[in-house]
């Protein structure tokens, strides 16, 4: 069965994101996302679905295909809503969104900068952060685990990224997925000397394992990790393969009180995609 999908494609720090405008059954989200992300289709790193908000205070609602929270997808939706409102160059607006992966309304401040949208967004605060030892490929590694409502991120301080380190990170993502029920598992390789971040994102429900070029949620987790580790407020430019993002994390009386990330979003395409849906055999 062929389905016609109306979409918008965004470029938030080269973390190519597709948001679907047409209405579909939730049980179809995984299959639609997998097809749209494919090289022979729209070729993106993640897919979300724009829904009608149940909260009267929200401007829009976003459901990611895997039920995860995604910072860059939130910024993409905020940029799209601001664009639809005709936000003039040099002006700012605030967008409130209902999003998957958190029960709180997400606030994004958006400024139109010559067609690029600079977005600053509040991120979920981790429920828990702890150090844990993991045996990966026969080697015991100290990993900082960052737990959210429906996601787990793991931070490993490392130097230059090579093929061996990539394989170990992918193995770790699968190990974490087998140990915890989560909509998303992130492995964040961080070089404290250069402030470079290499984010690996695994979304089990969509069967994706992606080395992202720019990860908003990973940037937020890195800020939370550094604030927790150093017991102080953090403000940092984070270098990623697709560009830089800024993170601030507030620390007060022994806990993280706020996390915020900032980056730019470009709207690069809008149109229709045609995908073949395969009926699932029960």
Give a written overview of the molecule.
With 282 residues, this protein is an alpha+beta fold. The chain folds into two domains: 132 residues, Roll (Diaminopimelate Epimerase, Chain A, domain 1), CATH 3.10.310; 135 residues, Diaminopimelate Epimerase, Chain A, domain 1 (Roll), CATH 3.10.310. It contains four helices and 16 strands. It has an eight-stranded mixed β-barrel with strand order 1-2-3-4-5-6-7-16. β9 and β10 form a beta hairpin. The longest helix is centred in the middle third of the chain and has 17 residues. The radius of gyration is 18 Å and the shape is globular.
Give me the oligomer status: single chain
Q: Which term fits the overall shape?
A: globular
- Detail the poorly predicted runs: none
CATH topology of the largest domain, anyone?
A: Diaminopimelate Epimerase, Chain A, domain 1
In the CATH hierarchy, what is the class of the largest domain? Alpha Beta
The structural domain count equals 2
Mean pLDDT: 93
- Tally the beta strands: 16
The helix tally amounts to 4
CATH architecture of the largest domain: Roll
Q: Which superfamily, in CATH terms, is the homologous superfamily of the largest domain?
A: Diaminopimelate Epimerase, Chain A, domain 1
- How much of the polypeptide forms β-strand, as a percent range? over 45%
Radius of gyration, whole Å: 18 Å
Largest sheet: 8 strands, mixed, barrel
Widest sheet: strand ordering: 1-2-3-4-5-6-7-16
Name the helix and strand elements from N-terminus to C-terminus, one letter apiece. Answer: EEHEEHEEEEEEHEEEHEEE
User: Percent range for helical residues?
Assistant: 10-25%
Structural class: alpha+beta
């Amino acid at each position: 069965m062929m389905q016609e999908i109306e979409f918008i494609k965004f470029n938030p720090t080269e973390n190519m994101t597709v948001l679907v405008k047409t209405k579909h059954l939730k049980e179809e989200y995984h299959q639609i996302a997998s097809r749209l992300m494919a090289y022979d289709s729209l070729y993106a790193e993640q897919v979300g679905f724009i829904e009608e908000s149940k909260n009267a205070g929200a401007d829009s609602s976003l459901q990611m295909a895997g039920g995860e929270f995604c910072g860059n997808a939130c910024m993409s939706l905020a940029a799209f809503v601001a664009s639809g409102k005709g936000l003039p160059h040099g002006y700012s607006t605030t967008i409130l969104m209902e999003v998957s992966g958190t029960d709180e309304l997400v606030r994004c401040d958006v400024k139109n900068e010559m067609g690029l949208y600079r977005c600053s967004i509040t991120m979920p605060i981790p429920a828990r952060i702890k150090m844990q030892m993991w045996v990966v490929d026969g080697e015991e590694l100290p990993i900082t685990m960052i737990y959210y409502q429906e996601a787990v991120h793991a931070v490993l301080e490392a130097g230059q990224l090579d093929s061996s380190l990539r394989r170990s990170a992918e193995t770790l993502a699968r190990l974490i997925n087998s140990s915890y029920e989560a909509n998303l598992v992130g492995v964040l390789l961080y070089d404290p000397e250069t402030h470079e971040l290499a984010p690996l994102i695994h979304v089990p429900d969509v069967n994706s394992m992606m080395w992202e070029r720019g990860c908003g949620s990973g940037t937020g987790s890195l800020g939370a990790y550094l604030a927790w580790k150093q017991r102080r407020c953090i403000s940092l430019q984070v270098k990623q393969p697709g560009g830089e993002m800024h993170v601030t994390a507030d620390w007060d009386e022994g806990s993280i009180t706020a996390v915020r990330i900032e980056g730019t979003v470009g709207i690069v395409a809008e149109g229709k995609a045609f995908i073949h849906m395969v009926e699932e055999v029960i």
